[in-house]
Amino acid sequence: MTDVSQTPALENEAELGDYFALLKPRVMQLVVFTALVGMLAAPVSVHPVIGFASILFVAIGAGASGALNMWWDADIDAVMRRTSKRPIPAGKVQPGEALALGVGLSFLSVMMLGLAANLLAAAMLLFTIIFYAVVYSMWLKRATPQNIVIGGAAGAFPPVIGWIIATGSFSVEAWLMFALIFMWTPPHFWALALFMRSDYDDADVPMLTVTHGRPATRRHILAYTVLLAILAVGTGFSAIGGHVYLAVAVVLNALFLLGAWRIWQRDEVAAEADNYLVERKFFRLSLYYLFLHFGAILVEATLRTWGMGGW
Q1: pLDDT tens for each residue of 159-168
Q2: How many Cβ atoms sit within 10 Å of the Cβ of residue 2?
Q3: Does domain 1-170 have CATH number 4.10.320.10?
Q4: Could you say which of 46, 117, 178, 235 has the lowest number of CB atoms within 10 Å?
């Protein structure tokens, strides 16, 4: 939790870029892209103006979640090398400003999405913000090594929201997209934790590498990757899949499984000898994994509008 008394005084006046950094723009990119794919993959077309406005408000909601997360986690961000230069621990923005920004953008995004799209989409966006800011950030992250597993749901809701923007309802296809992100999140973050473990030790965050050790983490990465591969390839035979998606999924998941297998076979002596090269490669591949899968879903949706996609 943020301790205002321990937050460094502002070194200089905050710039616009510092407030934008509070919104976690890199995370926002993934949210926008997967929500857009969810909306365009739906069997109901959306007016371009309504679609643009809706995705914009989803992006603002994602940014609100990021600001609230940075407000709450400022104390641990300050002791982790990966996050120490974020606006609050760097002394650029005060915690109260981040909190006000997060709360304000949350209300704005939910209210405007309800007006632009429908109330169910707005309700799902509100639930996602609360889940990330409260359930994950304030509770799970510091309480259990399953923080990433359960908390990963927050990042998996955007395609569901996108689908609801178009259809006003839930569907199996929307939850398949949710499941792709949900199952991808643990191996993605656990690979990062393998070569950034000291950060989580220093911050007293119960990541799996800290609570159960690296060998257990390697086993978990392999297990989740196997389940993810089954899910990802199986999605190719659903209504949002098709020949293009299936080809992409087969290649990507073969590479992902190979990477997870190599991680599982490694011991710490070998990993430290090459500065965790295998783990770093797996993590980099995971960065492209979702974009390419959702890009393939988007291609299939485009082909279907031309009467060429699907099975």
Answers
A1: 999 999 999 9
A2: 22
A3: no
A4: 46
